[in-house]
């Protein structure tokens, strides 16, 4: 039982059951409460007769009231005018009912009194005292109407049906809310054992749909990250074999002198591979803070530095482009794109412009381009086009993946577009301020 009440369903059902029980008790208390409106027929018939008598006496002169009272006598009810009435002390539920009804009909104040003069038989010899001019009208009557049925089987049946109906409908409604949560919990537990779990259906209330959507996005990001790191480990392990084998062969060869230049070249190659992998792993770390950067000046400086190194490259665009970004990450994006363009092309043009609140950067080369069916593939980590890969040692296919991750973290997109007749455009589009 404690485990049941520890669940959301059990707690909500406990609240509903408690509320239903409280409602039932409230109904019962209201039935017993003396100040509550009485149930028909008692005391309405008696009160109507008393109200009619009081109205008739109020319209009759004082000298004729005694005669009117004698003529208006009724069985089991007597009335007389007294100067000093002796008030009985008994009080019951019947006297409260009759007094409440008379006050409602006569609009009488505190002077109206209803008591019982026989404690042993509280339903008989009821005393009603009503001020009437200088005297007091004293009425003695019995409760001769039928006893009001306060507690009947239909009454309790209706209350029980109400409580059971509310509890049943609440349980059904709560189960519909809890079901998506239960599935989310099961999926989360299964995801801890296998990252290839299918996405959970986004259903239920808005908050649960949002939680399911966030879980699906988290699952997708973790699965993609794990796959990327697995592929990175496989690619690095494979590519490190070649330089390591060459170095071992040199050391195992029976030569007194080791070719230092070849060893250094292999070490540089291995260092480049490891650096690329680390750059990819830390590209989405998010440690760098955003700040304002003059993107036009940065592009012009980079192009000048590459041109001084012998590359045929130029920058076409505004000298000043204010851009709110992570400066080091954006510089990594630009250098990766320019390095790719220089490797595959002979003439490179870098352009930048502001378009509808977005910064658009194009890095254009005149190289062989990329097959149309591979334009999206090369953005994925460790994907390398075989002809180009053989001519570019040290590359593990992470440059464009790093660019894509950084651009996405700035709310932008990376697109690769083939040129006619040859060449490639690497287009980066990012919001100017985000």
UniProtKB/TrEMBL annotation:
Residues 175-227 form the HAMP domain. It is found in: Cell inner membrane. Coiled coil: none annotated. GO terms for molecular function: ATP binding; phosphorelay sensor kinase activity. It is a multi-pass membrane protein. The chain crosses the membrane at residues 12-33, 151-174. Its EC number is 2.7.13.3. It comes from the Bacteria. One of its GO terms (cellular component) is plasma membrane. InterPro entries: 2C_sensor_his_kinase (IPR050980), HAMP_dom (IPR003660), HATPase_C_sf (IPR036890), HATPase_dom (IPR003594), His_kinase_dom (IPR005467), HisK_dim/P_dom (IPR003661), HisK_dim/P_sf (IPR036097), Sig_transdc_His_kin-like_C (IPR004358). SUPFAM superfamilies: ATPase domain of HSP90 chaperone/DNA topoisomerase II/histidine kinase (SSF55874), Homodimeric domain of signal transducing histidine kinase (SSF47384). Its main location: membrane. It catalyses: ATP + protein L-histidine = ADP + protein N-phospho-L-histidine. Residues 235-434 form the Histidine kinase domain. Keywords: ATP-binding, Cell inner membrane, Cell membrane, Kinase, Membrane, Nucleotide-binding, Phosphoprotein, Transferase, Transmembrane, Transmembrane helix, Two-component regulatory system. PANTHER family: SENSOR HISTIDINE KINASE ENVZ, SENSOR PROTEIN CREC. This is histidine kinase.
């Amino acid at each position: 039982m404690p485990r049941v009440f520890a669940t959301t369903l059990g707690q909500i059902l406990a609240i509903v059951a408690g509320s239903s029980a409280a409602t039932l008790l409230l109904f019962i208390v209201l039935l017993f409460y003396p100040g509550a409106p009485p149930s028909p027929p008692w005391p309405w018939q008696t009160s109507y007769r008393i109200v009619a008598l009081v109205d008739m006496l109020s319209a009759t002169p004082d000298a004729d009231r005694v005669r009117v009272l004698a003529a208006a006598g009724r069985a089991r009810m007597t009335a007389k005018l007294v100067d000093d009435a002796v008030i009985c002390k008994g009080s019951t539920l019947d006297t409260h009912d009759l007094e409440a009804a008379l006050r409602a009909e006569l609009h009488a104040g505190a002077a109206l009194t209803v008591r019982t003069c026989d404690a042993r038989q509280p339903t008989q010899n009821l005393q009603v005292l009503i001020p009437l001019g200088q005297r007091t009208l004293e009425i003695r009557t019995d409760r001769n109407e039928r006893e009001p049925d306060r507690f009947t089987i239909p009454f309790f049946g209706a209350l029980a049906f109400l409580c059971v109906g509310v509890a049943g409908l609440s349980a059904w409604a709560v189960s519909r809310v809890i079901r998506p949560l239960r599935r989310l919990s099961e999926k989360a537990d299964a995801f801890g054992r296998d990252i290839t779990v299918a996405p959970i259906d986004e259903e239920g209330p808005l908050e649960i749909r949002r939680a399911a959507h966030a879980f699906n996005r988290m699952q997708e990001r973790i699965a993609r990250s794990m796959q990327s790191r697995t592929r990175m480990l496989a690619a690095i392990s494979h590519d490190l074999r070649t330089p390591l084998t060459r170095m071992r062969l040199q050391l195992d060869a029976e030569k007194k002198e080791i070719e230092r230049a070849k060893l250094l070249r292999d070490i540089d190659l291995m260092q480049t591979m490891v650096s690329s992998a680390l750059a990819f792993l830390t590209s989405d770390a998010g440690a760098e803070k955003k700040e304002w950067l003059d993107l036009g000046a940065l592009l012009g400086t980079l192009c000048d530095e590459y041109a001084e190194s012998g590359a045929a490259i130029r920058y076409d665009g505004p000298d000043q482009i204010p851009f709110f970004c992570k400066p080091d990450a954006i510089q990594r994006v630009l250098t990766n794109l320019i390095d790719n363009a220089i490797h595959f092309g002979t003439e490179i043009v870098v352009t930048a412009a502001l378009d509808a609140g977005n910064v658009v950067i194009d890095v254009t080369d005149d190289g062989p381009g990329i097959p149309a069916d591979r334009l999206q593939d090369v953005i994925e980590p460790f994907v390398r086009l075989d002809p180009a890969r053989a001519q570019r040692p040290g590359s593990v296919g992470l440059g464009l993946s790093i660019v894509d991750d950084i651009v996405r973290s700035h709310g932008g997109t990376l697109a690769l577009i083939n040129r006619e007749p040859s060449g490639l455009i690497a287009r980066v589009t990012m919001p100017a301020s985000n």
